[in-house]
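Components:
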Amino acid sequence: MMVIIMDNLIDISIIGYIAGTLTTFASLPQLIKSLKEKDMSNISLTFVITFTTGLSLWLVYGILRNDYPIIVFNILSLMFWIPITYLKIKDTLKKRKLS
Amino acid sequence: MMVIIMDNLIDISIIGYIAGTLTTFASLPQLIKSLKEKDMSNISLTFVITFTTGLSLWLVYGILRNDYPIIVFNILSLMFWIPITYLKIKDTLKKRKLS
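Structure:
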């Protein structure tokens, strides 16, 4: 899908790829830190499950609309958020056993 | 745009609206807390500027693709992230003056 911006014919998807790069990689340092330190204390279980479910539905939405930027960046995000969700659930269950 | 899922004809946008609701409202408690307490200490300036720029480009992308779920939820997110960006920049400038 092409559009003319300031006399330049550009593919709209480029805007989607730049947007996705910014929003996905903005949170990367924090995500990598949490994964490395396995420190899930500052992330709530409700947030993690809600957010990861939302990302999965955005992925379904992107596939159904054949919208590549949405597909690419939700897959990338899920590659981080699924392990974080797993660690958070494991962490929560461990704490419940101890209490 | 319609699709048949488990013999039901549904509008794909519904999936986008559910996805957007989950990802946007998942982070709401944290955003409201930061705005109320005006405590920007746990948010980095780089993250805020990168993320908010990304949201703005997703909004442009949604408008160009005439994709309502993307438009709606990026506007909603920006309604939180723009004030947070403003507060974070103000906070950072104040600290630089003091040092």
